[in-house]
Amino acid sequence: MTRTGPDFDALVAAAKAGAPPQDLWRAWYSLDAHWLLGSPSTPGSPFVGEVDGAGWVFLFTDSVRAFDTAPQLLGVTPEEVRAIKVHMPGAIDWLVSLGASGVTGIRVNQGASGFFAPLTNLVPMREYYAAEAARRG
User: Fold this and answer.
1) Closest CA to 29 of 85, 91, 84
2) Which residues have C-beta within 8 Å of that of residue 100, sequence separation ≥ 6?
3) For the segment 41-66, what is each residue's pLDDT rounded down to a tens digit?
4) What is the distance of C-alpha 107 from the center of its chain?
5) In 10 A of CB 120, how many CB atoms?
6) What would the CATH number be for the domain defined by 31-136?
7) What residues does each domain of the chain span?
């Protein structure tokens, strides 16, 4: 497995150093698909982890990050990791629907190069970047 696409480590580092976060989110929304961790106890369902008392879905920009992070995040062996590929742009509506089951937001590339957003921001950001792409032609 190899990483392809935007360099999210560099984009996160730039955002932490003061670059506009729009560059990071623009790159995230440009991906065709994302990977999320499957629940170890409920096959086919996303893993929802708790951070600061809130439920979060953990997404990754590539399968390498998902499989590298999952064992320590889920407390499972590498063989037990289940990753689910979700395709854009439909993934956004599906993720937002998880709010009804108590999910607060998404955490992308959990770890040193991670970033996050509440579910309520996902649709407005999708619309913004889609309109921006349409203006650019």
Assistant:
1) 91
2) none
3) 888 889 999 999 999 999 999 999 99
4) 6
5) 11
6) 3.40.1350.90
7) 31-136
